[in-house]
Design goal:
Strand content of chain A: under 5%
Number of strands of chain B: 0
Shape of chain A: globular
Largest sheet of chain B: none
Distance between the termini of chain A: 62 Å
Oligomer: heterodimer
Structural class of chain B: mainly alpha
Distance between the termini of chain B: 45 Å
Mean pLDDT of chain B: 91
Low-confidence stretches of chain A: none
Chain lengths: ~220, ~325
Amino acid sequence: MSFGQLPYDVAHLLGGAMLLTSFVLLYQRRVPAMVNALAAQGALLAAAAAWQGMVQAAPQLYVTALVACLAKAVAIPLALRLLIRRLDLHRTVETALGIGPSLIAGVALVALAILTVLPVTAGARAIVREDLILALSVLLLGMLMMITRRNAILQVIGLMSMENGLILAAIGAAGMPLVVELSTAALVLVAFVVAGVFVFQIRERFDSVDIGFLELHRGERR
Amino acid sequence: METAASLLTQALHLALILVAAPLVVGVIRWLKARLLGRRGASPLQPLRDLEKLLRKQPILAENASSISEAAPYVALAATIAAAALVPSFAHGMALAPLADLILLAGLLAAGRVALALAGLDAGTPFGGLGAAREMSFAVFAEPAFLLCVLTLAILAGTTNLDAIAGTMRDGQLGLRVSLALAFIALLAVAVAENARIPVDNPATHLELTMVHEAMLLEASGRHLALWEAQSALRLTLWLALVAAIFVPFGAARPGAGPIAWSIGLLAWIAKMGVLCLALAVFESAIAKMRVFRVPEFLGAALLLALLAVALLFVSTGLA
C-alpha cells in the first residue's frame, strides 16, 4: 500500500503526533505540562495500537491498546502528579543544555535515525521504513530528555517516553507476539516503581531532586 | 472566453478580499468579546473606524522624513498585491501564473520592512523597540515559512500557489506526517506574522509589551487608516492562505461557471468563519508569552518545518 490510502496515512499521522509530543516534552519548561504531554503520548500510542489492530486484523493489539491507555495515559501520569504534589515541584525546570540547543539536538537525532534506518532497510517499502524512523526517533528523543534534564522526575518521564517509542515500533511490525509486549510493559512498570523509590531516597538525603548532588558521592572522588 | 472568466474572477476576488478584511477583524474581536463574557462592539466597527480615520489629516513629527508619508502606501500596496495572489473562491484567476509562494513571502517582507522603517523614522524609543522586536521575530519566521513552502513544493512539484492548491484539492497526497508538521509550523508562523496572542497582544495599551502597535504609535489620521487596513488585509491573507492550501475543498476549478463560483464563495465564507472562530478561541484560551521566549517558539516552528522536509525526503525516496 502507498500514501493516499487511509490505513497507512492514519497510522503515520498517529506516529507523527507521537513524535510531536516528544518535541513538546523537550520544549516545555513546566513539570505539570510535561506530565500532560506524556499522558497525550500514551493516549496516542493506545490509538495507534487500536488502529493497527483494526488494520492488521490482530485482536491482541486491542489488548495492547487497552493496557497502554490504562497504564500510560491514566495510571503513570496520575502517579507522577501525586509525586509532584508530594515533592512540591511546581517551579520551572533547569536544563543542562537549554531549550533551543535541545530542540536542535532533537532534530539532529531524528536525522540520525533517518540515516541509520535507511541503509539497513534498503529493500523494504517506504511506509515500513518511515514507521521505524518515527519509532526510533521517539526512543532517541526520550533518551535525549533523560540526558539533558537534571531533575529526577523528568528523567523518569524520559524513560517512559523511551518505552513509548519501543511499543510504537513493536506494534508497527506485524506478527509480534503478545507475551513480548506484556513482559516489556511489566519490566518498565517495575523500573518506574524502583525509580520512584530512588527519587524519594534522594529527596530525603539531599532535600532536593537535583541529581547534581549525587556527583559529590561518586566512588572515584575522595 | 477563458481569459474573460479569469479576469472576472480576479476582479471579484480582489473586491471580496477588500470588503472581507475589516469584517474579519471585526468578527474576531466580537467573538473574543463574547467568549470573555462581554457584549462586544458590532463586527462592522472596524469599517466605521476606517471611515472616520480616512477623513482626518495625519500629523507627523517634526523630524519625520518622507518615509513616514510613503511607508503606509508601500505596505498597503504590497499587501494588496499579495492578497490578489492568494485564491479564495476560484482557482485559475488571471494572476494565477504569478502566484508564487516565494513571491508572496517577498511581498510580505516588503510590507514588514516598510512598517519597521516607519517605526524607526520618528526617532521615538518605542518605535525602535517595536521595530527591533518585529525584525528579530522575522529572523525565525521567514525561514520557517520558506521550509513549509519547500515541503509543499516537493509534494506538488511547483511553488505556484494555484498548482499546489489544485494538487491538494485532488487529494492524491493523502494525510502525510510531513503535511501535518508543515501545517503546525505554518500556523505558528501565521500567529507570529499577524501579531496575535501568544506572540503579541493586538489589543494592548502597554507600550512595553507592544511589538506591532509600537511601530504605529506615531501614525495618525489617513496614515493610521492605511496601517489598520494593511494589518486587516494581512490577517485575511494569512487565513485565506491556510484555507487555500490545507482546506481547498469547494473552490471552483479553473474555467468553471458562475454556479461553481457561488459554491466556492459559500465554501470560502464557511472556511473563514471556522478559522476566525478557531483563532478567537485559541487567543482567549492561552496567555501571551514573554518576549524573549518568542524566538524559542518560532525556532521550534522552524525545526518542525525542517523535520517535515527531512521526513518527506524519506517518504518520497529521494534519500
